Structure formats: structure tokens, C-alpha cells
Amino acid sequence: MGGASVRPGTAQAAEVTAVRRSTANGGAGVRVLVIEDDSELAEAIGVGLRHEQMAVDVSFDGNAGLERALVTDYDVIVLDRDLPGRHGDEVCAELVAAGCRGRVLMLTAAATIEDRVGGLGLGADDYLPKPFAFVELTARLRALLRRAQPPLAPVLTSGDLRLDPSRRSASRGGQPLELGPKEFGVLELLLAAQGRVVSAEELLERAWDEMADPFTSAVKVTISRLRRKLGDPPVIETLAQAGYRIAP
Fold first, then answer.
1. SS3 content of the chain, % helix, strand, coil (to 5)
2. Which H or E element spans position 82?
3. Model's pTM, two decimal places?
4. Which helix or strand (DSSP H or E) is residue 37 part of?
5. Which pLDDT band, with edges at 50, 70 and 90, does 155 fall under?
6. Cystine design at 64: which of 59, 172, 193, 228 (Cβ 3.0–4.6 Å)?
7. Are 32 and 54 in contact (CB under 8 A)?
8. What are the boundaries of each domain within the chain?
9. Is 5-148 a domain of CATH 3.50.50.60?
10. Is 56 helix (H, G, I), strand (E, B) or coil?
């Protein structure tokens, strides 16, 4: 949201405009859970992160959030500390005890050093006091992702195919490709896999959110559109009963 601050319990009138001013650094294939009881704030964060091409699910209380976090493989969990149902401290402790691999970014209206140290001591990976600037939230999320994942080349390539996540651009043979958000996300995931076969289920989980129907043909349709835009010779291979990969 540029330099705009996101404040709990206030109208998010400037949210969409500010989100469009933020710089995308590649969010395709990232799955985020936001656990925040202020529904207006939670939905504003969700809209902003989806604009950054992240797949976002939202829970409004600690019990529902913990249940989701334990059954879905999230990359990052944005966790409010003062939650109804189950306090954020307890949610964080449960996630750590369960061996949850997702990184936890804790939010709170309390901004004392003691509060921050307490949250980190529970196992949170980072801490952000409210109100906060949306660009700082996304920057902290990306920093957590860099620590959680093996580093990838800043530009992904295969043959004459080139994809730059930070600039949200792709080209083949030097010619720019006009890709939709899901097409870009799927292509990024396939290139990042470096020849590994990626199942349709994994693509659906990483590039879409929980609202996607597991029986949908969205992945198949997106792959078909990608193939048309990428042209010949074919770049994406289909392996029956296994998934897709970039042709070696």
C-alpha cells in the first residue's frame, strides 16, 4: 500500500489505490493464511496480498485459524496476537509444537519491547506492530519466504524462455509474453521446479487459494492457454497421471 498505513477498525478507503502503488517482487506460488479478528483489516490484507499474486486464506478467530494452519501447508501465517476463541500466543505455541513449517508473522496493537520479545519467544519468526504500512508487511513476508526456501535465481530461464518474478515479466525468444496472473504463477512454479514434475494438485494448491474447487479444470485450462501463448516448439510436457514439467 505504498506508504499508507493499515489501521485496525478503520475504513480501508485508500487500500486499493495504495496496493497498486506497491512494487511486486514475485508472489506467485506463495500460500498465506491471515488470522485476524478485525474482518475489515483481514480482508484488506487479503486483497493486497492477492494483488501481489499470493494465494490468501482468511480466518477471523484463533480456533478456526489454528485448524486451517494444521491441515494446509502455508508458507507464511500472518497471526494477530489478540484473537477471540484462542489467543494468538496459544495459536503460535500450538503451531510450533505441531512442527508447522510455515513462517509466523505476528501482528499486535501492543508495541512495547516486552511485547515484541514475548511474541518472538513463543516461536514467531517476525513481529509487526499496528498500524503498519502495507509495503512493510509485504517486505517482511518476502524476507521470511527467502529464509524459508532455497534461493532461486533472480531470473528463471529454460532455453529461450525467460521469466523475471520481480518485474512480473516473461519472454520467449526475446519476445514479451502477455500472461494473466494464474498463467504467470503456473509458469513460475514450473520453471522453479527445474525439470521436476509438478502435479496438478500442487499447482492448484500453490497458485490458487482454498476457494478453488479441487475437482476444477482450472489447471488444465491455464496450462492450455499457456501452451498457446508460449508457441512452438512446445515447452510444457504432460506426464500422464503425474503432472507437468518444463521440457528438458
1. 40, 20, 40
2. none
3. 0.59
4. none
5. confident
6. 59
7. yes
8. 5-148, 156-246
9. no
10. strand
